[in-house]
Each structure stands twice: as C-alpha cells, then as structure tokens.
Fold Ribbon-helix-helix protein CopG domain-containing protein.
Amino acid sequence: MSVDSLTPQPAKKQRAPGRPKAEAPHDATIQLRLDKRQLDQVTEQAQQTGLSRSAIIRAALDGVRVLQAAPTPEQREHYRQLVKLATNLNQLVVQARVGQDVQDRARATLAQVQQLLATLNQTQA
C-alpha cells in the first residue's frame, strides 16, 4: 500500500437538486387529430385565456369549461382606475372619521366607480 492510498480523498461535490417533481406529471403522450374548425377553436381559446392548447384540452377532459378570457389592455386600464378610485375612497373615509365634510367628493368618486363598472360589464358581455 502506498502512502497516497491511506490519505482520505476529498468527497465529490453533490449537485444541487434540480426542478422539483410535479405532483401529477403529464407523462403520457397522445396524438390527436382535429379538423380545421376544432383546431381553430382550441387555438382561439388558448389565445383568449393565455393557456396552452394542451391545457385547454386537459381542462375540457376534466369537465371544466374555460370561460374567462384574458383581460384586454383597455380592461386592464379600467381595473387600474378602479384601484385608484378605491384608494381615494379609503382616504375620504379616513378624512370623514376625523370630522371633515367629504360627502360631495365621496359621491363623485362613487359615481366614477359605477361608470367604470358599467363600462367593464359592457365589454365583458
């Protein structure tokens, strides 16, 4: 035996764990033939919802109907405005608690909220 074989060798570095395993991995693959109309329908739903075509098909198989489309840029802007108006209402409530008269400003803000909600309901219908 040589002296080199008696000295302990440094342990090899272990690799960090990779991506965690999925709870329900999609480990089976099928080929699916669709006609042009069906493919267009799945593709359109995928674009509207932001999901993949595979996710749309899986949802259909699970009995879930995908109804919610991704919000348009115009709808997103309306949602941002609603957040700002809600913040304004909260500030008005705080001012009212300390005795300030904020009734007119609160009514005007609520009217704006109602108008935005009506606009959002029209675009979603």
Notes: The chain has a mean pLDDT of 84. The CA atoms of residues 3 and 88 lie 79 Å apart. The first helix runs from residue 3 to 6. The chain has two domains: 31-70, 73-124.
